[in-house]
Amino acid sequence: MAPAPPVKLYDLGQIDYLDEPERADEDDDGMGSARHRYHRSAKILGRLYRGVDEKKIWDRDIHRAVNTDGPSVWDQFTGRMQAELEGLGIALDYARHADDARKLRHLYEEAMSGSMWHFSTNPRESLTEVEVFCGSLLNKRGAQTRQQRDNSTRLKDEADRIQSWMVNLMRRRGGRVEPDSGAESGPDADEPRDDVVQLCWACLVVGCLKDADDGADGGSARRSFRVCAAACLLKEVDALRGAVAGGGFVGVAAGLARRLDGLALG
Description:
This protein has 2 domains: 9-62, no CATH class; 73-257, no CATH class. It has a two-stranded parallel ribbon with strand order 1-2. The relative contact order is 0.11. The termini are far apart. The chain is 53% helix and 2% strand. The protein is mainly α.
C-alpha cells in the first residue's frame, strides 16, 4: 500500500467555470494529452472513499514502529541453514571458499552498478538496486511512462541475464573463480556437490557482511547478492535432502549416508 498521488479536487459544477490553459503532460513523451480534472463525487462510494483516512492508516499500520531487538532476519536464516547443513553431515569450511565468494560478489556488484547507470534516464542519478534487481523502473507519480515501460522490458532481460550468470557460477562452476570469468564459462558437471554447497554457503556469508567488514571501497552497500546466494543454497539443500532420502546424485547419497552413520555411531 502506498499513499495516492496528490490530486486537486473541485466541487461539482466548478469545473465549467475554470479558465485555465491546457498544457501538455510532461510524462507523455512530448505528444501531449488532455489534462483531466476531478470533482468530489456525491454518490455513496465517493463519500466512503473520502472517509478513508490514508494518512492515519499509513502512519498507524504501515509505518508503525517495529521492534528491532534480537537477531535480524538474515542472522536467523544463516543460523537455520548452518544447523540444517550440519545435520546433513556437511562440515562447513568458509575460509577455503571465502576468496572465491568475494570475487563472485565483486563481479555481481560491478554488473549491477553498470546496469543501474546504463538504464537510468537521468545522467546524474542512477537507478536503485531494487529497480535493477526486480527489472522494473519505479515512477513516483504512479504509472510508468512509455519510455520507462520500454526501458523496464530491456532492464528485466538484463537482470535475468545477470542473475542466471551468477547462479551458474555459484552452483555449477568448479575450481577457482577468476575475476574475468563471464557467462561463457561453462559449468563443470563433475564438480563435487559438497564443494558447490560450500561455495553457496560462503557466498551467503560474504553477502551478509557489511562493506566495512568486507574490505570494500566504502561505496553504497549492495544487498541483492545475498538473495541470489540464499536461493542457490536453498536449492542445493533441497537436493541434498533428496539424496539422503534415497535418490539424488551418483556418489553423493553414499557419502552422506556414511557421514550420518558415523554421527549415529558416535
